[in-house]
Amino acid sequence: MTTKAALAAVALAAGMFTSSAQATDYDLNSLVVDWTAGVDKAFTGAAGTFVDHYTFTTDGSGYLTDSLLQQLGISITSFSIHDAASNALIGPAGYEVSASDSSVAQAGSGYWYFSNVAVTANTAYYLEVAGAKAAGDTTYGFTVNLTPVPEPETYALLLAGLGVMGWIRRRKSA
User: Bridge-partner residues for 98, per DSSP?
Assistant: First the structure.
C-alpha cells in the first residue's frame, strides 16, 4: 500500500468516527398554517452534533415568537433566527429557561425560546437549531408564530371608517 493510499484510508476512518456539524436545510414555508408552524425532528443512529436550518419567507411584517422543547437525548446549544441573505443574527438569540423562571410552564425541562423578533415582509430568514444528540432514537420539536404588524393602509381605513360613522352620527343629530 502506498503512503497516499494509507493516508487516505486513515482520513476516511477518522471521518467515520467524528461527527459533522454541517447544516441540514429544511423548508419551513410548506409547514406554515396561518403563520403558525410546528416541527418535530427525529434522529436515529450514532451520537453526534447537528445544525439544522429551517428557511422561510415572511409574507408580512411582524414579530416572531418561537419555542423549542428539548427532548430526551438532545442537548441544544443554540436557537436563533438569521437573515438568509447575509447570515446575520436577527434580534436576540434564544435562551434556555432556568428552573427558577416561573413565567414558563416548562421551566427547567430544556425549554428554549425567544420572543418579539422583528421581521419584515417578503424577506427570507432561517431558524437555526444546533446541538448534540445521544446514540439511538432522539427528537426535538419547536413551534414558530408570527404576530403581524398592521400595514399603514389598515390604519387609514380604520380612520376613514370612524370618520364616516361620525359624519353619519352628526347628520342624524341635526
Answer: none
In Å, what is the CA distance from 151 to each residue of 49, 91, 111, 115?
Answer: 42, 21, 33, 21
Per DSSP, what are the bridge partners of residue 10? none
All three cell numbers of 16, joined, read: 467515520
DSSP H or E run through 54: strand 48-57
Residue 141 near residue 41, CB atoms below 8 Å: yes
Global model pTM greater than 0.85: no
Percent above pLDDT 90 for the chain: 15
Strands 62-69 and 111-119, sheet pairing: antiparallel
Helix (H, G, I), strand (E, B) or coil at 164: helix
